[in-house]
Design a protein that fits this description.
The chain is mainly α. The protein is 64% helix and 0% strand.
Length: 177
């Protein structure tokens, strides 16, 4: 039974059909998927990372290490956004705040997201290989935390603990690098 005055649209779906974006539209979809349109997340990760680098170096860190960590923060934060949206791709269309994300709208597929995640993490791992073994080992822990966080939201009452641990991994890595 429809409430009085409610409008019923026959054939309208809650989940729209996948969009067929142009190549320019696909780039915009990727830009939004990695949240490049919202750089505050990168800045929030970069701030403690830079502090840790300066403290670990007892002054200005070596330029190469600084570049590795800045690029690494951008890449891993982007990868984290991709895997988060992949994990929530079935839920996001039902939430007002997330329904316009590229996986929720069908602009990008889950398979494309996984491939993008792998490429971003491979690039980040290539950077960490330029450091040392302790830092490389810690990057494995960081990867694990980044991958499991989106799925922890389904089984934990406090997934922010995992997210906080993932966000803070650059700090011990800065001291081992």
């Amino acid at each position: 039974m429809t409430p009085k005055g409610a409008r019923v649209v026959i054939g309208e779906s809650r989940n729209p059909a996948p969009r067929e974006p142009s190549s320019n539209g696909r780039w915009r979809a990727w830009w939004r998927l990695i949240r490049a349109d919202r750089p505050i997340g990168i800045l929030l990760l970069l701030w403690p990372t830079l502090w840790a680098l300066w403290l670990a170096a007892e002054g200005f860190p070596p330029p190469g290490i600084l570049l590795i960590f800045v690029a690494g923060v951008v890449l891993t934060r982007s990868a984290g956004c991709v895997i988060n949206d992949y994990a929530d791709r079935w839920l996001d269309p039902q939430v007002a705040r997330t329904r316009d994300r590229p996986l929720a709208t069908g602009e990008l597929s889950g398979r494309e997201a996984l491939l993008g995640f792998a490429v971003l993490m491979a690039l980040a791992f290539g950077l960490v290989l330029l450091t040392n073994w302790p830092t490389i080992l810690l990057s494995g822990v960081a990867l694990l935390l980044a991958v499991i966080y989106p799925f922890c939201k389904r089984v934990m009452g406090f997934p922010q603990v995992v997210l906080g641990a993932a966000f803070s991994m650059a700090i011990p890595m800065a001291f081992t690098a």
